[in-house]
């Protein structure tokens, strides 16, 4: 088997670009060109450093950069791996936390906003509720380990949760505890380009491709419970659905 250094573009000690940036770029290229496949393990930092004749600090900084970009993931005790794209089943009513755990990743959120309010006219239409209905709004950046995957804005009917603080790490867990987890949903998916503000939150670049997925979730009795908009980084997700021929 070829060693990793044979798959990487050689580093140029005389270039004005710092070595760690060169290494970060050539590792990124190797991942893009599938010379390093999803779930492949990187050699330990010490081995990589001696193979490439650079310092461990150079290797660490290059890897740190790629972890921040969401291309590599560090797993405690087992090493550094190439991130696999998340395959999300488009026809399963699962939560972000469940999706990530099912793939061995750790879900985490950074809160942007958590507020009480009343439905906007637009939400009133989608949530099929009358103007003035109390709602809770949850705005979060959703992470898998250290990689930002999506920005998510959820509006939930206040009557479905005991309080605004009931949502700690998982909205669906909180809804389930209250007996109000959605059992059916409508989903709409649209391609979009990230604005500068969205790109900054997701550590992407302005104009990068993303996916907007809107989900309108319903209770057993047919009433809407949740309207969520999720902006996914286009380079981390594949949406998959199983289709059957009409009968
Ligand atoms: C998913 C759902 C979103 C839901 C969230 C709950 C899609 C497209 N959207 O992101 O509607 O609010 O999961 O996740 O799948 P949580 O329980 O981890 O907070």
Record keyword descriptors for this entry.
binds 2-acetamido-2-deoxy-6-O-phosphono-alpha-D-glucopyranose, alpha+beta, 247 residues
In short:
By secondary structure, the chain is an alpha+beta fold. It is built from 8 helices and 10 strands. Helix content is 27%, strand content 32%.
The averaged pLDDT comes out at: 91
H and E order: HHHHEEEHEHEEHEHEEE
What would you report as the Rg, rounded to the nearest angstrom? 21 Å
* N-C termini distance: 50 Å
Largest sheet: 6 strands, antiparallel
Side by side, the strands of the main sheet go: 4-5-6-9-8-7
Structural class: alpha+beta
Poorly predicted ranges (pLDDT <50, ≥5 residues)?
Answer: none
Large-scale geometry: elongated
Continuous helix count: 8
Q: Give the names of the bound compounds.
A: 2-acetamido-2-deoxy-6-O-phosphono-alpha-D-glucopyranose
Strand content: 25-35%
Quaternary structure:
single chain
Query: What percent of the residues sit in helical stretches (DSSP H or I)?
Result: 25-40%
